[in-house]
Amino acid sequence: MKKLFLGRDGDSDVYMSVSTMQRHFACFGSSGSGKSVACKVLIEELARKGIPVIAFDPQGDIASLVDVEDAEKIAKYNVPPEIRSSYVENTEVVIWTPGSSKGLPLSINPLQFSGIEDLDIEDQVRYLSSVAKNLVGLIGFDLSDDEGKSAESVLSVVFEYCIKMNISLRDFEGLITLLADLPESVSNQIKAVSSEKLLKEISKKLSILTMGSRKLIFETGIPASIETLLGLDDPNGKTRISVIYLNTLHTQEEKEFFVASITQMLYRWMLKNPLADGQDGVQCAYYIDEIAPYIPPVRKPSCKDILTLLFKQARKYGVSCVIATQNPGDIDYKAIAQFSTYNLGCLSTKQDIQKVKTRLDSIAPKESDDIVTKLPALKKGNFIMLSPDEYDTAKNFMVRWLVTKHTVLGEDQLSDFVSDELREKYSKKMPMADVQPDQIEPLEKSPDRGASAIEKAAKPGGEDVFYVKTKLFETDILKAIKPFLSGTLIKSEKLIENTFRYRPLIKVTLVFFKEKGLFKKTTSEIPVNLYLDHKTHKVFYYDGKQPRFSQVVDADPNQICDIDDHCTIEIISKSEIDFDFRKIGKKIDPVEIKNLMERKYRVEVHAVDLLLYPTWECAISDKKTNTLRTVILDGISGREIVE
User: Cys bridge to 378: 269, 346, 531, 581, which one at CB 3.0-4.6 A?
Assistant: First the structure.
């Protein structure tokens, strides 16, 4: 069992089991008590044991985990030298700076919902509601009054509609455009809580996020992802500690937004990456220093609900939560009801002690009074730890010294701790401008009809393109191609080569007019996407589980099982995708596509776009005759695409 070395109780070492950390750890102590040192020791230990950490740093002292102390100085504090050496050899500290390039710049686009379709309906609604609340708080609405709650409801409904209709908002301008011309179904749904005045107010406040320094949070740097923060995007053998340096954000609302956004991402990530049945352990740790402003007892900042939800659910997914504050009287104890370990340093104010005592009475009633009398007299670095999962009684100990320097790093110092190698590695993942020309001519509109809000919100710009990420990786090809080789037990064919290719498709956004009734006919409008081969204009769809292209599909457009039912469409910069757009040749003519579809079905075409779809081209050879044939595998289902 993995043990974390925290310090000494007289002649005995004090350890914490990793399995105990699964049930969360809270550290309280006044300024100067050594609280931050105790938490940083815990982070050092977790990382040494191979557990990655995401840490929020509101003051600059957590960032100094990147700066390893001299071995001679550590030896003076009786810290075993192997702790320092294993920390140096096995860990990697990355300092992320939202809206700034002082460290590694980190950006967040809260409107990117890719992967949400993997969650169940309740989790989808909960997640979108949390995003809406986060945005409403950021743009200045009071979440506790009726206007703030109405604004939150409006955005939640709009986001749910976008997911349902597979609309990618892309950025705040897309959301503003959609709010200006909402579909009737959405307008009807929100009319009880909204008004034209409120919609204009939401749009006005959102437009502020597209200007000045605030837009840097959303546009500058590496797009945030939990895989990146945990070092899972490109493993290098070291355990990552990601420090998110909040001092580069200028307002409390921005800090709350960033905390909430990362917490939402982590919550979604853990739902998709659960522990195996019956498994005990910790996949990663999540640490917030000075948490009081984020979970106060009365006020409800935008991040409070998602933090409370994370603390409640994280333990069963193997996400260890660690919090610290010098003001335990200023936090909502209902929000941290799931925390099982409390590490208490010196506390002197009556309010803080009384708050802590209330908690102690429930978890250690026999020791509560004795502990409370000792708290004001505790020396720096001296803690009383209550951990019923680890120890039968309270543990009074001195925390070990850090193997990293305990200093405050200012913004101007951060660049010294970001290696050129790390900066170059992640610079490739930053959004880049693209100079490729569009591959589609603009669709001509009738004089009385411009592009709809949905088209404008969902359509990528000239530098971007719709695409689908492959779910079939090269390591899976041999297994995927086997059913398509001739022979039963012994195959008479073999795979000799496989090549990944994006297949250009035409994404047609349309409305299908469906008629109902025998005598009194009614017509309903059903938004639908269809996908055509860019050359033959055959429809790409799934016949049962079989992906195929066909000129004639005997079904209404809304009944065709197409790629919307199997994958997520995303937007990517053309410069970031491995595809030669010159191979498309003649530009796609939207007018031709419009006429084709409106002859085929009772529809109105709203938009025509290019989409790149993943395929694997497999060269198959007969073992006896050496004759060759080609099988095209669908990059999503792994099945042969029938032409």
Answer: 346
